[in-house]
């Protein structure tokens, strides 16, 4: 199958199958880079490091999202690595979705998801505890902080994971159905070819049988003609009247043999006659035979007195 110019133009660069997917990943990576860059600057101020280093770290981490289709495991590892710096919300969600939708083994998906969830849970626990500590009038029960932290961590982890698993399962199902349909189509084509071969074999067998019968019939008629011709030669001088009857009988046998021969040949040519142009091929034999039988040549042999 040839590939049109539109389909070639729609194919994306590098590892992207479509140009639209490449544009989407580049846009997501740009947004993530801006987000992580801003969060990196804030982290640099809190950690006492140069701001440009934090921004550079955030931009590099967020920009890694551009490779989410090619290396989803690496993207999730980057998101886990920058979790202590409290950056990469979009990076973590989209990376986890891409990982779950990919063909990576489930045990690796479960391990990386657990690592990201635990890292987020620890950061949330610390932040919630600090926020509550700044409010002396708010004294929640002991289970409140862990419960809120677990719920928030699950809320950040479960939706992209479940959505990615659903999309990946759906894509694999569609591919499986497409492969099955292609397999059925090939099997049907093979069955059709075999049926055509069996039909052709049956036609050849029938032609062989008809040719054999034609040979037997024509041979019988010709044998009778030879016998009557010999008898005609023997009695031509003694009994001219009987010789004349035998000559007519020989002519009738010859015409009958030609008729049967034309009938058998017509059966054999019934399937290929339509494919040949009129007035060409073996069909002319039947025409010449019919013209010969329509105006037979009368014998002019003279019997000696």
TrEMBL record:
Start and end residues of each stretch annotated as Disordered: 271-305
Group of enzyme by EC: transferase
The entry's keywords: ATP-binding, Kinase, Membrane, Nucleotide-binding, Phosphoprotein, Transferase, Transmembrane, Transmembrane helix, Two-component regulatory system
Keyword tRNA-binding applies: no
Single GO MF descriptor: protein dimerization activity
Enzyme Commission number: 2.7.13.3
GO CC aspect terms: membrane
Residue ranges of domain Signal transduction histidine kinase subgroup 3 dimerisation and phosphoacceptor in the record: 206-271
Catalysed reactions, semicolon-separated: ATP + protein L-histidine = ADP + protein N-phospho-L-histidine
Classification via InterPro entries: Sensor_HK_TwoCompSys, Sig_transdc_His_kin_sub3_dim/P
Membrane spanning stretches: 20-38, 50-67, 73-97, 109-128, 143-168
This protein's record includes keyword Magnesium: no
Superkingdom, natural source: Bacteria
Protein name: histidine kinase
